[in-house]
Batch of 4 targets.
Target 1
Amino acid sequence: MSLSKFKFIPFLLVTALYTVPANSQQQEPVEPRLLDLLELEEAEEPDSIIIIEEEYNPFADFLTDTLDEVSAIKELPLIPTSDLPVITYMPLVFDYAEYIDSIAVTDPSPILASDNEALDWLTIEADRHRRFRDIKRHYMINHPDLVKYNIMTLPAPPKQYKATVDPSQSTIIISEVITLDNKVKEPDTQIEIERRHWLHNFSAGLQFSQAYISPNWYQGGNNNVNMIGNVRWNVKLNEKFHPNLMAEATTQYKLAISSAPNDTVHNYLISEDLFQFNGTFGVRAINNWYYSANAMFKTQFFNSYKSNSRDLKSAFLSPGELNVGLGMTYSKENKPKRFRIEVSISPLSYNMKMSTNHKINVTNFGIKEGHRTISEVGSNAEMKLSWNIMWNITYNSRIFLFTDYDYAQGDWENTLNFSINRYLSTQLYVHLRYDSSRDKVDDSRWSKWQLKEILSFGLQYQFKTI
C-alpha cells in the first residue's frame, strides 16, 4: 500500500481542530438546578400527556417548575387573585426554622379536605403555599452558605429626614422622620373610660415577735410575745381632673400588744394604741403652692394601765387632741412618682386637748387640774415625705410642730418598710416626740424628749388605684 494515500490525513486533523468552537475548551460552570440542590431525583417522563384547556393560572408554572411530578392540574372554578410571593425573586432571608416530620417536600399531605368541588382551588393553593414554604426551608437548611441575610441581623433601614422653614428665626430645621412599623388603627368610636376623681391607697400589716427562754437559761430572761397591727387608708383628689384643687384625707390606726410575764396584775400590756385622722384642702395659688386648711385629730380606743398597777394611764378620748390650721401648702412629686414631699405652714392654728375619763390624772396631758379641756392658739407646721427607694423599699416620714409661744410640742415619725414579697415585710418604726410641758421622769434622763422604736416582721397587704 502506498503512503501517498494518507498524505491528506494531517491536513484533515488540523481542519477539524479549527472547526471546534473556541468556547468548548473553557466552559462556564452551569448553575445548579433547584432539584439538584435539594438532592431530589428527577421525575420520569409520563407515558401520556393530558392537555386541559383552562383559563390562565399564574400558579401553574410555579407548580410545574418546582416539582416535576405534577403532571396535571384540576380545572379551577375559582382563580386565586394573589401573585407569586415576592420573596421568590429576592435574596434569601432566614426568618424561622420549622421541623415537620409528617410532611415531605415532594408529597405533602393536604391540609384541607372538602367534598365541595368549588373549594378545590383552596386545597391546591394551600398545597402550593406549603410546598413553597417547605422547599425554602429545606433549601436554606442544606445550603446555609447561599443564605444572604438573617432577619435577626439585618442592617437598619436608612434614616429619612425632612426640612422645615422657621420664618420667625429665618432658619431651616432638619429633623429625622420617625416611622412606626406597627401602627395602631384608631377605633371608629371612642371608648369611654370612667373617670376616677378620687385615688385610694390602702395598706394593712400585722407584725409580731416571739421569744421563749427556758427557766434554766444561764442569763435568765422572760418569755414574751409582741403583736403590732397597722391599718392605713389614704384618699386623694385626682390632680389630672382637678388641677387647681388639692384634697387629701388619711385615716390610720395602730395597735401594739405585748405579753407581760413580770406584771403580777396584767397578762398583757398595750404599748401603743393610736387612731389618727389628717385632712388637707387647698386651692392653687401659684405653681406648687396652695392656700390651704388642714386638720388633725387623734385618740385611742382601749384602756392602758401602768405596769403592776390598776391605775389608768390613758383611755378613749383621754387624751383626745384636735388641731386646725390655716396657711399655705407646698406639694411636689417627681415624674416617676418615686418621691413626694408636702409642706404646710399655718401661721394661724388652733389646738385643743381633752380628757373625758375622771380616773386619769389630766396633768399628764398638759391640762390644768380640775379642767377637762385646754385650748391654745398659735402656729403649726407639718411636713410629709414619701420615698420609694427601691421597688421593695419605701420610706415615709412626718414632722409636726405646734407652738402657742409659751410651750412647744413636736412629733417626728419615721417608717422604713422592706417588702420581702407581696405578703411578707419587715418594718422599722421610730417616733421621736418633744413636749416642753412634760416634767422629768424620776430615775431617768428623759424629760421633754420621748422616743419609741419598733422593729417587726410579719404580714402585709396593700392596694391602690392608679
Target 2
Amino acid sequence: MGIGRSASGEGFDLSNPANSFVDVARRVVLQPVRFFGGLPRDQNLLNPLVFALVCVVVSAILSGLLVLLGVQQNPGFNPNPQNAIPSTFAPTSALASILFAPIGGAIGIFVAAAVQQLLVRLVVGENNQGFASTFKVASYTQVTALVNWVPVIGPLVALYGLYLSIVGIREIHGTTTGKAALVVLIPFLVVLVVAVIALAWVGYTLSNQG
C-alpha cells in the first residue's frame, strides 16, 4: 500500500490545499453519500492523512486555547469512534496536546482504520475494497474534529460523525447500512464499555480508601 498523490480530484488535493480542504470538508459533511461513493479505490494514503491531521491539529489548538484561557478544563470529547482512538493518544496537558497532535493523530487514525478493516473483513467479507479505502473513511471523517473544541455543542454536533462513518464504510465497500453500522459501532461500544468499567473501578477504589 503506497503513500502518494491521488490521481483523482475527488479527495483532498495537496496541490491546491486551501481550496481543496474547504471543498472536501463541505462535501464530506453535506454530501457524504456522493463523496465517499466517488472516492478513488487506489492505495493513496498521504492526501487523506494530511486532511485528517489538519483537522486534528486545528481542533487541538482551539481546544488547547480554551483550556489555557480557563474556559474548559479538558479538551472536548468527540463521540465519533474515528476520533475517539486518536484522542486516546493525546496528552492531558493543553500545550503538550497541541505539540503531540500530529503524531498522536496519525497513530490513532492508523489504529482506528486497522481495527475497522478487521471488522470489515469479518462483517462484510473478503470482497471489500481493502485497508486503504477504510483508511480514507477514518481520515475524512476527522472533519468532525473541527467542532470538537466547542464546549457542549461540539460533542453533540460530532455525533453526526457516527452517521458519516457508517455512510463512508457502506459506500466505499459497497455493503449494506446494517453491516456498515456494525463495523462502526462495535469499536464505539467496546470503548464505551471499557470506559464504564474503568470509571466503576475508580469509584470502587476511592470508596474503599474513604
Target 3
Amino acid sequence: MVQLDIEKLKLFTYASIGEYLADIFEASIYGPYAGEYADEKTSIDVLVIVESKESLLKCISKLFDSKRIRFLIVDRRSFERDVESEWLGGILTESILTPYISIINPDYIRYQEVKAKKRMVCDILNNLILSFPEMSMNFMIKPEYFMFETIMRRATLFPPIAYRFLNIARSDVKNRNYTLMMNGFEAALKDFISEGKLKLVDNEFLKISEEYIESIRAKRGRRLRNLFKNSRTRIVRYVLGIFPNIMDSILDDYRIYKTYLAEGNVFVNPVRKLENPRKYIFIPTSSGTVSFTERMSIEDFIRRHMPEKYALKHNIKRLGGVLNSVYILRVAENEKERKTVVKVFKDWYGWKWFPLTLWALGTRDFTVMGKARLEREYAINMFLSNHGINVPSIIYVSPEEKIIFQEYIDGINASEVIRQLYKMTGDENGREKLLDVIRRIGRELAKIHSLGVSVGDCKPENIILSSDGRIFFVDLEQAERSGDQAWDIAEFLYYSGHYTLLPSLNIIDEEVKEFIYGYLESGGKIENIKRALSPRYIKVFSFFTPPHVILAISNTCKRVLKMLTIEEPK
C-alpha cells in the first residue's frame, strides 16, 4: 500500500484549487488510495466541493510528489442534489458510497454519506416490497444486504465501476473497506428503526414493518418512476463518460484488478463476480431460517433433512393435474411412513393457461408466474398460521428453485365430504355430521376473510378435514390480501354442485344453508354472500355445474338472505 502525507495533500489542494476558486467547502480522497489498494502507478482521486453561485463540474490534473492527482470539482448545490436524487446519475455520490478519507470538513461529508445511504436504503426497501408484495413481510434481512444490493445496482447500471467494487473486496483490504462502508449504512438503518419502518430481530436481522409495507404497496406507480430514473441514470453516466479524468479513474481500477488477478480470467463479466445480495435475505420455515438464494432439489432435501438410514427408503409420487407439479414424498421411518408434500412452481404458459383464461374471463385474474405463486403460497400460509388458521406448516422453501416442502395433512378433502352427503340416504346421524363439516368450513372461511385475505382457489378439493377433525386450507398460491372474497364463496358453492348430475335438491338446500349460517355466525360479511349471486360469477361455473343445480344453489342463497333481512329489524 502506497502511503500519502494527508496534511501535505490538504495544503496542496488549497493551493491548487485556489488558482480557480477560493472557497473550498470540503475535500476528500476517494478511489484506490482511500480503499488502500493503490499501487505506484495509481493517480490520486480527490473530490473537491466548492461554494459557488453557479453550477460547476470540472476535472483538473496536477502533479503532487511525482504523482498525478485528479481533482473532481463540483459546486456544493450540485453535489447535494446528486446525494438527494442522483441528479448527476449518482456519479458524485459514488465517492462516498465507497471508502473515502476526508481532508477538509469531515463532519459535512459524513452527514452527506449517511443521507445518501439512507436514500439508497429507502429505494431498496421500496423495490423489495414492490417485487415481493406478500413475502417481504416475512423477510429477515441482514444489514449487509443493503450494501451489497447497492453495489450490485450500481454495477448493473454502469458495469465498469464493478472493478472498483471488486478491488475493495480484495482479501487483504476487504474487512477494512466493508467496515467503513457499512458504518454509513448502519447509521441510516438506525434512522429507519427509530421511524418504525424496520424492526431489529434477535440483534441480527431486520424486518420490514407491516405498516411500511402497506404504505408502499399503495404507491405501485413508484415502480414506473424508478424505471425512468434508471434510464436517466444510464444516460447521465454515458454523458459523464466523455470526461477523460472520470474514466481514467475507472481505468486505474481495471488495471489494478487485472494486475492483482495476474493469470486469472479478467474477461469474465465483472458484475457476475460480485457478491449476491440476496444471500443476506432469509425467510423462516418450521425447520429454521433459509437463505433466499439457497438452491435445493427434492433429492438434496432428502439428503439434508432425512436421517441417512431413512432417506434410503423413499419414493416420490406425482399428485394433482396438469396445472400443478405437486408431489408426495414418502419416507420410511421407524416402521411408519412420513409424508411431505412438494410443490414445484413452474410458469404457466401456452395451452396450460388458455383454459383458465376462458374459464374466468372478465371475472377473476389468475397469477400465472411461478415466482409470484410461490410468494403467495408462502406468505399467505405464514400469515394465516400466525393468526390461528389451520394451514400446512412450511418445512422448507427454495425461492431460487421455486420449490416449497409442506406438511402432509392426513384426512379427506371437502369434495369427498360433499360426495358422501349427496349419496347419503336414511342415515340421519351421518348426514348431520357431514352438514356440520360444511358449517365449520363456512366458519373457517369467515375467519380468513376477517383477516383481509381471500383464498383465491376455494374449491372443495383445497379444503381438508384432517384425521383429528380440524379444517385445513391448502393450495394458497392464488390467495391474496384485499382480494375478491365473494369469489371464494361462489367457487365453493357453485363448484360443489358439479360432483353429481342429479343431487337431491333438499340436500343442496341444506348444504348451502349450513355453509352460509356458518360463514355469518363467525363474522362473515353478508355483502359477500350477496355479491356471490352476481351473474359474473354464475357464468364462470356454468362450464362445470348443471344449470338446475346452479339455480337451486342461487335460490337457496336468496331465501336465506331474505330471511335474514326480515329478521334484522328485530
Target 4
Amino acid sequence: LLGQTTIKGYFSKILKMSQDKIEIFESELSEERRKQLASDFDMVQKALKAKSEGLQNSKSELICLYNEIQSLPRASEDKDYFLVAHNLLQRENSELEAKVFKLSQEFEQFNHFAIGRKTAAANLITSKNICKDLVSKLPVLEVEIQSPKEDREELCPEQGESKQKEIAEESVKEGTLPRERQKEDSQQNQAMKGEGQQSTLKPEEIVRLREELNRINESLLQSQSSGDSSDDTSAQVGAVNARSD
C-alpha cells in the first residue's frame, strides 16, 4: 500500500507539472495569437485606407472628366485653332526648307567657282612666269642668234680663201683640178651656207616672236581683270539675294 501511495503521489506531481506547463504554453500561444491578429488587423486597416484613398482619387478624376465633357464645345474651338496653327507651322517649315536648299545650291556653286578661280589663278601665274621668262630671254637669244651668224660670216671667207689657196697649190702641182674634187668642194660650200641660213633667224622673225609674247601677256592680264569683275558681279548677286530674303 505504501508503494502504491508513493507511485500515485509521483504521478500526481507529474500531472500537475504537466498541467502547469500546458497552461504556460497556452498563455504563450494566446499572446502570440493576439499579436498576430493585431498585426493582421493593422495590415487590413492600412489596405482599407489605401483603397479609400484610391477611391477618393478616382472620384476626383471622374469629376475632372465630367467637367471636361461639359466644356467640349470650347475644346472643339481650341482644336480648330491648333489645326490652323499647325498648318501655318508646316507652311513656314516648307518655306524654310526651300530656302535652305537654295542656299546649299548657291554654296555649292560658289565653292565650284572658288575652286575654278584658284585653278585659273594658278594657271595665270604660271603663264605669266613663262611669259616673263621668255621676254627676259629674248635679248640673250638675239645675241646668241647674231653671234653665230657673225662668226660664220667671218669664218666663211677665211675658209674660202684657204680652200682656194689649197686648190691653187694642188692645181699647180697636178697641173689640172679634177672634176670630182670641184664637185665635192661646191657641195661642201652649199651645205655650209644652208646651215648658216637655217640657224640664223631673220630680224622680222624676232620682232614677230616678241609681238606674240606681248599679245600673250596682254591676254593674261585681260583674263585676270575679267576674273576680278566676275567676283564683283557674284558679290553683287549675293547681296541682291540677301536683300530679297
